[in-house]
Structures are given as C-alpha cells and as structure tokens.
Amino acid sequence: MVHPKIIDVINNDVCTACGACASACPAGAITIGKAAEIRDPEDLTLYTHGAAPNVCEGCLTCSRVCPVIDGFMDDEFANVEQFFGAKSSIKGQDGGVTTALVSALLAKGEIDCVVAIARDDAWGTELVVYTDPEEIKNAKGTKYTYDSVLSALTEPFDQYEKIAVIGVPCQAHGARMIQENVNDKIVLIVGLLCMESFHHETMIEKIIPEILELNIEDVEKMDFGGGKFWAYTKDGEGHNVPIKDVAPYARNPCHHCCDYTSVFADISVGSVGAPDGWNSVFIRNEVGKKYFKMVENDLEIMEEPKPGIGLVKKLTTMKHKNSGHYLEVCEKFSFETNGIR
Q: Which of 49, 171, 204, 336 has the fewest CB atoms inside 10 Å of its own CB, making it the most exposed?
C-alpha cells in the first residue's frame, strides 16, 4: 500500500485538524476528535468500510485535500480584486458581515446550508449545519478555540447541493482543496482573518483563569487588538494582556501557518484594517463578487476604510515571518510539500 503523506503531517504535529480528510475519505478511515480517541481497529462500527488503517485504500484523497501538503501562497494579496469596509445591522464580533452574508443567502435560496461553529457560555464549540437564516445568527462572533469545521461536511454532501463554509485560513484552504479535487457542492467559501487559535482546554484552564484572572462564564467576547489579547466581560469591562503572554499557548499547527487572510477563500472577512464596529472585506474572485453582490444592498459599505489594507499586510508579513520555519519542518517529512509558492 502507498504510504499516505497525511501520516507525516500528523506525526510531525503540523496537522491543522481542519477536518478536510475526514469528510473526503471514501473509505471512512479517518476520524477527528472524540471519535479518533476511542477508535478501535477491531470495532468496525466506527467506520464506513471498517477501521483505519485496515481499510485505507491507498487512494491518497486525504493528501489531495490537506492544506499543509498543498502549501501556502507567498503573496496573500495577489488575488484580491476588491477591498472595502462593511457592516450590518447584526451585532457580531465587529460588523456582523459574515453572519449577515450567509443569512441573506440562505433566505434567498442561493445556498442550501452553511457549515459553521457555534459556542456555549463556557466557550465550548459545536459544529452546526445551518439551514435556517435566523438560526445562523447563533454562530456570530469570533471563537478563539478551534473545532474541525470540515469534518461536518459528510452528511451535507449527501443532503444538499449548494453548501457554504465559514472557517479560518486552514479550513478555507481545506474547503478549496475538497472543492477542486473531491466534491463541487461547496459553492462559497468565506474565510476569516486569523493569527492563531487555541485548544478549548488551554483557553478555559490557562489563559482566562490564570493569565487574565477571569471566570470564563463571565466572558462574552474575545479579541486581538493593539498588540493585546482582550476579554470583555458581561459587565462591559475590557481586560487585556500583551499578545506575547498568550501566543506561546496557541495550537502547535498555528505556529507553522503562513496564511493570515484566508487566501484560498472566495470572500475573506476580518476586523483588522477597518474602524471599530466595521469589518474589512476582501473579494478574491468572481464567485465572491457574485455572492456578495446579492446581499450588498443589505449592508453599509465604506469604500476606503481606515487604517486600511496596509495594516493587514503588516500583520500578514509578521505571521509569515513568525511561521517561516514551516519549511524547516517540511524537511523532516519523508516527502516534499508544495511549500511556499
């Protein structure tokens, strides 16, 4: 059997856990999270055709959809066709643009479902497939804890024809690889700007209680800004520590990531580069342009937001520099990735 490259990604601890391989594997041989922890090679009920690695068919589908194996773009702005600010009437992390966008597209019937993450009061994450334009509003706000968004695509692929995915850079990248290599039912990819994310346990057991000295259930919003990590509590107070105090606790794959702006998305959305209460929006291709045009009349648009795209580029350069040892990690692999293009 051909040795799948994905094994090297996992063994070198650079797997992003985006979930692309789990949803794309035709044999059902890959599982994420809890299912992976309890898998038993003798228990065939956990898998479509049996148990990994016994049923791996050597098709290398997992490698074809892996964002780490595909590598990163050196210039994240080469495919940006439009950059502007926008905000909606929905109260979100900032301008609520992502939520407003997919909610409107669901209401118009332009998409059948949206795969995204919701959270509870303790910042635990839950993968949800939304079909109701009102329910998607429960997913608003940035979650700095991670979940394997793309692993939730298996059932939607069987049930729906027009699927939208919301995710951070590695998830947007994985969704693009699925779309190009396995399943074209993903019609829209909305990517989020992301410097790093954290394991849930790290956030609730270390960062919030020990570093910020807060109760996680009192926190209603988290954010990065001005060189600091912020936690806003229900009493309206903002609490912060320097980013350098929390950055070492980010997930290990984040330390090797060279994508800040979700370069593989159709539309990228963030807060950096736009004023408070607004989102920065990057239209990256004709698909993004088409879908955004369907809802732009529901949004307030700012043609030249400040501080502007220059700040986004500055942070992108910073992330690339900090993650530059990605290629050094690749040298440990028993294969060559596409690396930095």
A: 336
Is residue 68 a contact partner of residue 41, using CB atoms and an 8 Å limit?
A: no
Number of residues in the chain:
341
- Tens digit of pLDDT for each residue in 22-74? 999 888 878 776 555 565 656 666 666 555 556 777 888 999 999 999 988 88
DSSP string, 22-60: HHH-TT-----THHHHT--TT-GGGSSSS-TTTT--S--
For residue 250, the one-letter residue type is A
pTM: 0.88
Amino acid at 327: L
Which segments of the chain does DSSP mark as H helices, in order? 6-11, 20-24, 34-37, 61-64, 67-70, 97-108, 154-159, 169-181, 200-202, 243-246, 286-295, 309-322, 326-330
What is the C-alpha to C-alpha distance for residues 312 and 84, in angstroms, rounded to an integer? 12
Say which residue the tokens 């016994």 belong to: 54
**DSSP code at position 259:** -
Report CA Rg, the chain.
Answer: 19
- In the chain, the amino acid numbered 235 is D
SS3 call for 186:
strand
